[in-house]
Amino acid sequence: MTYQTPQYQQAKVLLDSPETLTLDAPEAALLLGISKPHCYQVIAETGSLAGLPIIKIGNRIKIPVGPLRMLLGVTQQAS
């Protein structure tokens, strides 16, 4: 069993929540297993993150959870 940081666990809770529509780029990076700087570098170079769409709001970058769930193979629990 691997140790999961509190930040990873929080991001996973957000990903699993049906109310969550987007995640911040650092949260998506944690779930994808990449560093935050690498995440921002990939977004700057390609305009997406691992093929995922991004939403820019001012300086913030949001990642829609629907495509992220599909990429990670996570099924949403029915509430």
Give a concise summary.
By secondary structure, the protein is an alpha+beta fold. It is built from four helices and three strands.
Give an account of the 3D structure.
The structure is a single chain. The chain is α+β, with helices and mostly antiparallel strands and 79 residues long. 48% of the residues lie in helices and 14% in strands. The chain has helices at 6-16, 25-32, 36-46, 65-72; strands at 22-24, 55-57, 60-64. Strands 1-3-2 form a three-stranded antiparallel sheet. Helix 1 crosses helix 2 and helix 2 (25-32) packs across helix 3 (36-46). The chain is globular and about 30 Å long. The N and C termini lie far apart (28 Å).
Key phrases:
79 residues, alpha+beta, 3-stranded antiparallel sheet, 3 strands, 48% helix, globular
Mean pLDDT: 90
Q: What's the oligomerization state? A: single chain
- The helix count comes to 4
Structural class, by secondary structure, is alpha+beta
Strand order of the largest sheet: 1-3-2
SSE pattern: HEHHEEH
Catalogue the unreliable spans: none
* Principal-axis shape: globular
Number of strands: 3
Percent helix:
40-55%
The Cα radius of gyration reads: 12 Å
Give the percentage of residues in beta strands: 5-15%
* End-to-end separation: 28 Å
For the sheet with most strands, the description reads: 3 strands, antiparallel
